[in-house]
Amino acid sequence: MTSDEFDVIVIGGGPVGENAAGRTAAGGLRTALVEAERFGGECSYWACMPSKALLRPGHALAAAKRLPGVPVGDRLDAKAVLARRDEFTSHWDDAGQVQWAEGAGIVPIRGRGVVTGEREVTVDGRVLTARRAVVLATGSVPRLPSLTGLSEVPFWGSREATSAHEVPESLIVLGGGVVGVEMAQAWARLGSEVTLVISQDRPLAKFEDFVGEYVADGLREDGVVVHASAKTSSVSTVEGGVELKLADGTSIVGKHLLVATGRVPATSDLGLEAFELEAGKALPVDDTGRVSGVDWLYGCGDVTGRAPLTHQGKYAARAVGSAILADARDPEPWSVAVATADHAAVPQVVFTDPEVGFVGRTSAQAREAGLSVRVVDVDIAVAGSSLHGDGYRGKARMVVDEGTRTLVGVTFVGPDVAEMVHAATIAIVGEVTVDRLWHAVPSYPTISEVWLRLLEAYGL
């Protein structure tokens, strides 16, 4: 091979692209990893890591306040919180990520990659060729609402919200999804006056109905003003900030506006039109990540629209790498070369206080899938939760397919429930029956004892 010839070319150097490239490089294939901005991607610098670094100190303070006898103050040290956040982003320097790639046998190439021919990628005028495959892992970009005046007003996206170096005096958050609720709580706990505006009757509307109610209560306890079922009409610049007007005549003024109304696959400007693929839309892929109609092109992560979560994208990337190594055409459903879990076993955590942990199907989704559904709800009120903090409030839901007596969905909401999700994920992926699950005895006294209460409520 020449210096511009590779076995595999991966476009997109975030966690998803890194996993795909790492897999093929470890398998002996000469692999290039192309990145237009920072190696490490959105998650490392503007999403998962900085957002959780902003949230965790507030959670720790709130948890300490729930325990009598623990000496705590009333406010966070915002300067220290932001400094720790900067450490987790490596101060937005990707030298460490480049070093990792090179150590893994990957050839990092900085620049914007465009697919310009069959197995051909052009990076700022440099033409690269791939003997086996091209992989697209370019992630997603913000979706902006159709809102009068938005194009004329300075506003934050998720990047600005996670990388700001001063606590805003006041912040209007537009959007009740994961980014909206997490950033609303993070900045409220750091001292900002936050207003959350959502179009649905509750935040996190795609989750089980009770989830949004718990999260909204948690936000209000932190001083966040929540406008639910609100239709926005316009936004404009006013002295000292921005003004958001609602359809009912309500006017909301804040120093900054955060627009968090979702994301779309980043498939524009990649040259896909030449292969009869629609730019700006999700890539149509099978479970190996192979793009429909283009035998040598693969996609993984947010670009596929399947499960836009970092952990799920990394899982799909490992499947893509394995599929390329084996030239897998129709592998077994649960082999390492397919992303089978994307269909019905996707876990997700929302890092608010209370936390939300969910995996599988909601009760509504299970019914839509034609399953014979039984829903079991219990409050999280066990010895472990009582010890965890005074006034602990939480809820758990178990969705059972009565045809097979297996779990198809589990939701937890409450302080520190995130670490309970993986047990539910294993039960769903393993198709463990409730009768067998009865013998998985939860340790006492832990919050996990809620599993026993769920099964007792089911009737075991």
Automatic annotation (TrEMBL):
A Pfam family matched in the record: Pyr_redox_dim
Residues given in the record as FAD binding sites: 52, 113, 138-140, 302
GO biological process: 2-oxoglutarate metabolic process
Key word Membrane present: no
One of the record's GO molecular function terms: dihydrolipoyl dehydrogenase (NADH) activity
Domain called Pyridine nucleotide-disulphide oxidoreductase dimerisation: residue spans: 346-451
Stored InterPro entries: Class-I_Pyr_Nuc-Dis_Oxidored, FAD/NAD-bd_sf, FAD/NAD-binding_dom, FAD/NAD-linked_Rdtase_dimer_sf, Pyr_nuc-diS_OxRdtase, Pyr_nucl-diS_OxRdtase_dimer
Source organism superkingdom: Bacteria
Residues noted as binding NAD(+) in the record, renumbered to the chain: 175-182, 262
Cysteines joined through disulfide linkages: 43-48
Cofactor binding note from Swiss-Prot or TrEMBL: Binds 1 FAD per subunit.
Keyword annotations of the record: FAD, Flavoprotein, NAD, Nucleotide-binding
Needed co-factor(s): FAD
Domain FAD/NAD(P)-binding stretches: 6-314
Family, as annotated: Belongs to the class-I pyridine nucleotide-disulfide oxidoreductase family.
Protein name, per record: NAD(P)/FAD-dependent oxidoreductase
Species the sequence originates in: Umezawaea endophytica
Classification lineage: Bacteria, Bacillati, Actinomycetota, Actinomycetes, Pseudonocardiales
